[in-house]
Specification:
This protein is α/β, with parallel strands linked by helices. Helix content is 34%, strand content 27%. The protein is built from 13 helices and 15 strands. It holds the Pfam family Peptidase_M28.
């Protein structure tokens, strides 16, 4: 209950969904059996709630790491340090790579130079992968990210499949911050990395459950969360917790009439670059274009399925016993104002900011759908993308708090509203930031078509 506002959301039920995903199923890396098992579990639960349920399948690349070792030379001996591979990065030769270190204390590309050639680059923090081609052009042997946060183990990260094909690739791994400090304090200057990754083609499954509205059936609100994880971890808060909230909202909100169509979506493959939500959004965009190109399409009489998408409410990273709540929104300022006013009314301490979040709601915002994205930060969320993102740091009370707010927001602005409080509009000043969330294959297809048109022979004049 939120400040004496009754809700039907059950934190206990959400906790059980979360526990099943995180512990009973466990790791849910893109395209693996664990992810597919989770998809079938969510689909089963959706059907039990009475939702019309389907699975949207799409191609992905997954991987296994058979070896990832890193050592630094300390005099005549080699000192070993734990590292985690960057998934879908490049393998080293079987014997590994060995070289002097080149230290970069930030990822500003203007400092990339020939001094990186044939070196193992140690980079503090992360980098904009758009700068990877420039880094690769100087010929380093490998790249090791020195985590900027203080943690017990290196984070587990996956390189986006399209980034490596379009922007270059090299062997990459993460080392925890304090091990990097140890290397620096000891003055170690030479190391060797052995990274062996095996890739295979697989598929992802978006799980879609829908309840059709009673009198506003042509207005669709998407409630979503991703259910996959980084490699080999429970992913309790990221994002079994968010998925569990979405599932409990599905149970509660579909038990009663709704004026608008509610579409609950559990997205796959978010950790490998929003693959599931980008595929979903791209599919809507391509069908929208085909329909509007038909001679029979009249914008005054007809709408596409993309047009009918009016709002997306995305839940990502939730359930931590202690933490801070925050919202990011894409759309007109009234979207943010609606969230902000409700937090004040219900006594929910949360920040509200304009702009995209690196999560699934941004994929739909990039094709014109206003988005509200809800996350929990601080506290044990520092363990994201590591084996310490575990159920022991999750509580039913934290899930109930986030789920209760979400229920009230959706009832007020979607389910019961006589008219939607904000237009289906992404302002121009937000479009640039959202470009990064367009599906890259769609861009590639457009470029190819444009190239074909430019090389086509001109029609003969009669």
């Amino acid at each position: 209950m939120l400040k004496d506002v009754p809700t039907k959301f059950s934190g206990a039920k959400a906790y059980e969904y979360c526990k099943y995903l995180a512990i009973t199923i466990g790791p849910r890396l893109t395209g693996t059996a664990g992810e597919h098992k989770a998809a079938n579990y969510i689909a089963k639960m959706f059907r039990s709630f009475g939702l019309k349920t389907r699975l949207q399948r799409f191609p992905v690349t997954t991987f296994e790491a058979s070896k990832c070792t890193f050592q630094a030379r300390d005099g005549k001996t080699w000192r070993s340090y734990a590292v985690e591979p960057v998934g879908l990065s490049k393998s080293t030769p079987l014997r590994g790579v060995e070289s002097e270190f080149a230290l970069l204390d930030n990822a500003d590309s203007e400092y990339f130079s020939g001094r990186l050639r044939d070196k193992i680059v140690l980079l503090l923090g992360t980098m904009n992968m758009a700068d990877l081609p420039k880094l690769c052009s100087f010929g380093p042997k490998a790249l090791i990210f020195m985590d900027s946060g203080i943690a017990d183990e290196p984070i587990r990260r996956v390189f986006r499949d399209y980034q490596r094909t379009k922007k270059g690739n090299l062997p990459m791994a993460h080392i925890k911050h304090m091990d990097a400090v140890d290397i620096a304090k000891r003055g170690l200057t030479r190391g060797r990395l052995n990274l062996q990754l095996t890739e295979k083609k697989s598929y992802g499954l978006n799980v879609i459950g829908e309840k059709v509205g009673s009198d506003r059936t042509d207005e669709i609100a998407v409630v979503c969360g991703h259910y996959d994880t980084s490699m080999g971890i429970q992913g309790a808060s990221d994002n079994a917790g968010g998925t569990a909230i979405m599932m409990e909202l599905a149970r509660v909100l579909t038990a009663e009439p709704t004026r608008r169509t509610l579409r609950f979506v559990a997205f796959a493959c978010e950790e490998t670059g929003l693959n599931g939500s980008l595929y979903y959004a791209d599919d809507l965009a391509k069908r929208d274009k085909r329909e509007k190109n038909k001679a029979t399409f009249d914008p005054k009489l007809h709408t596409t399925e993309l047009d009918r998408h009016r709002l997306v409410f995305n839940v990502d990273v939730h359930g931590a016993i202690l933490g801070n709540s925050g919202f990011q929104y894409s759309g007109v300022d009234d979207v943010g104002a609606a969230v902000r006013l409700l937090t004040k009314e219900l006594g929910v301490h949360a920040g509200v900011s304009k702009g995209p979040m690196s999560s699934d709601g941004s994929a739909l915002a990039a094709v014109g759908v206003p988005a509200v994205q809800y996350a929990r930060t601080g506290g044990t969320t520092r363990f994201l993308h590591s084996t310490r993102d575990q159920m022991k740091f999750i509580s039913a009370e934290a899930l109930a708090q986030a789920g209760g707010f979400s229920e009230v927001f959706l009832r007020r602005y979607v389910i019961d509203a006589a008219a939607l409080a904000f237009p289906r509009q992404i302002p121009k000043d937000q479009e640039e930031a959202l470009k990064a969330y367009h599906w890259p294959e769609l861009k590639k297809t457009k470029k190819k078509k444009a190239k074909k048109r430019s090389t086509a022979r001109p029609a003969r004049r009669s």
